[in-house]
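User: Teach me something about this protein's shape.
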Amino acid sequence: MTDHAKSRHDESDAGLDAIISERRRLIGLAYRLLGSLAEAEDAVQETYTRWYAMSRRQQDAIESPGAWLTTVATRVCLDLLGSARVRRERYMGEWIPEPLAERTDWISGRPGTAATDPADPADRVTLDESVSMAFLVALEAMTPAQRVALILHDVFGYPFAEIGGITGRTPAACRELASAARRRVRASLPPAAPAAHQTGLVRDFKEAWDAQDINALVRLLAPGATFTADGGGVVAAALHPIEGGEGIARYLTGLAVRASGGLTVLERTVNGRAGLVIEHEGVTVAVYAFDVTDNHITHIWAVRNPDKLRPWTAGRSTSRS
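Assistant: First, the predicted structure itself:
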């Protein structure tokens, strides 16, 4: 190989590496916008398909491949959000964003090691407040445009001029969309409790649930707490949110009784915060995410839809009771 050809080959490899290195960020963007790892993977795959469908000359003409990929991924997500609203109107029961697994030992407070499989989309999403279940649920109440403006600006740091180019709106319009989205977040999300405090409350909740101690559960739950379950019409789950600490406590202890002692409750990180994984005879059947304010649990999201539990069951038995 001549020096000139080798130089071109090295440049090609460097360019390919730069394109591939964008994947983690794109997955993080798409997950926050869509609330689904599966859909985020599809959106990013479609983005790369469009990139590789171009000729080398077309690719070389793009000044910033990263910006191009972000623009296309965002537009793909906007299209998916439009169709998702229609699908969710027909969804059986409540729709909850797909819970994000993190290989982290929050019990001891030590950060976990990276997953052995770097292709796992869950490991490509940076965990922070913008992927907490409470935040993702708040995003569901926004328009797709508000969602995009908020995530691109507040989470990924894009200036409104660039967001305008991505969405086809003026920078001023994007600024107002993000501002309206921010107001929605502030209205629906009280300040988050410190991580260690939330961990302690969730652990106390687990112990009270294991003991089927209704009184202890009621003390841990805010009087106006809400429990929301998502079975997707595939498995049994409460079709409507359960309101009130006592009602939630009685419902959960009833679940344990009906399971005839076959449930195991495990402490795990869920969307970057303390959560619980429920197993029945060794099979993951639910993932619980929590929101904590002051000294009480204010919301529990219980994801039971098996399609949303695949990242939690990888490598384990797929049989269900």
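Now, about its shape. The beta strands are 221-230, 242-243, 263-270, 273-280, 283-293, 296-303. Confidence is low (pLDDT under 50) at residues 4-11, 103-119, 315-321. If you'd like, I can walk through any region in more detail.
User: That's plenty for now, thanks!
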